[in-house]
Protein 1
Amino acid sequence: MRPALRFLTIGLIIYASLMIGGVYEYIPTIKLIHQVGAALLFTGWLVYLWRSGKTLPTTRLDTPLWALSGGWLIAAIFAHDPRVSLEFMWYVLLHVLIFYLFVYMLQNGMHSWVMEGFVLSAAVIILLTVREMLGWYFKPSLNPPFVTGWPHWFGLSIPPVIHPASRAFEHKNPLGAYCLLAIPLLFIPILNKPAMQH
């Protein structure tokens, strides 16, 4: 059971890293799958905590996190279009619950699962980005949206500008934000390795 739960956790982390909160959320079918799937997942986890007599894990970020979420909720209620604003509050609540789920896993001996899922999701994003850059510079057919090639000089393709990678998240801003968080975290196992050996 535990190995199956480990692989399921890693798979969910990879899926969440690639699909939740990005441009994909504007696709109605994917949006519905995310809302129903996340509702079932977190309802099950919260019921488990309740039946076990536990609460959400406590962190130093609790107060600012819930204060910020409360501020967003008040702003959504009094927005020009409350229905749309409250619908987007689902993303806020989802990310807050994902944060607490990760903290819970880290506090309950699942640190390696979280790191494995995170590292593998970063590897998938790197591969997608490498594929995108190769398609941009050398073979546009690798990426269907790229319909123009570049002039060839002496057998080399020389583009006039550096291509801003974006295909992994369908937009360059979420990809940049992911990299800002991912790069420091990926160095943690490397920096901790000497300490773990002693």
Protein 2
Amino acid sequence: MALFLQNEANLFNAASSVEGALPFAHAHKWSLAKPGHRTLLFQNYADGYISPSQHDSTLQVLTRHGPSQPSWERCLPVSGATSWAKLSYYRPSKDFPGVAVVRWRSRPGCLTKGAHNHDWPRSPTVSFDATSLMVDFFLNTTPRWDAEIFPDTKVDQRSSILLV
């Protein structure tokens, strides 16, 4: 729902989706003519709730089938619970407002006591904290992240956000 609202409603400055894919069953209601709003996606590749191909398809729609490679990527620290983690950023263009993606793979059974790995990554179990990344995304704006690499980027000061 957050991904649909970030595109269709002009009420929010940014949105975030955890293990969420676009509602492809309702794709006919999605307007690609609208640019949408800044979006932060989280995807644990060991989770299995959405497949990597669903995640990639969602990313293609959010970037309006633009760049297939991010503007920049950073490896995030890993711990015993995480085999790898990466923050990727797709720089805003005239077609979309910027997309950040946190991808990681947790080790089986390290995040939860159950059979799946659908728990929220946070310290001390995982050496990066998804909540901190999300707060930074919403409060400091994605263009600030981009400005570290591209100093001429303009910062949007709007502050309304959508958390789902």
